[in-house]
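Support request, please re-run this one:
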Amino acid sequence: MAATPQPAPPRSKGRPRSAAADQAILDATREALAELGWGGLTMGHVAVRAGVAKTTLYRRWPSKNELVVDAVASLFDELAVADLGSLQADIEDVVAQFAAVLARPESQAALLAVFAEGSRDPQLRLRIREHIVDPQKVLVHQGLAHALARGELAAERDPLAAAEQIDIIFDTIAGAVEHRMLVIGEPVTPRWIRRFTELLLNPGLYPGC
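Re-run finished. Output below.
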């Protein structure tokens, strides 16, 4: 029997997206946000800085909210949890990576601007959670998976408790680092990272706290 002909795959419309153009747009967005603030930033400013047409920009990001959130989210694309042999070493490494991102002036300005605006805009706050916060929780999943494989932790059998555990761990680590660097303006040093991780994993080491 002759094989039944398969329909040809649909052709994509328009020109393929350029990764270089996307990166230029995201970089320009963070630069404009740091310089102009949320209220001063416009799609036109970003298009000029990135060297693209406004139509190109709107084709990729239909709104300012979507563009700015994606620009901030991309700051954390390279964060990863390495399997360094212990849960403490894994946490210390990812905290150091996170702190290095936040140490960049454009990162600080962009995060503070988008979080401030999110406090006034529920839809933006939801987008921040879905596109910036929730994707980074995979780091906690990876760290716990490494610890489980090494026998350092026991698996949580209750799915609801497991989800709550992920949230609490993420909130504790991200909140502590962001508060120290963005709120009180103190550096995250190797010593601070070590003491923070020890307190997180072994609170009994610091009975006076």
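DSSP finds ten helices and no strands in the chain. The longest helix spans residues 159-183.
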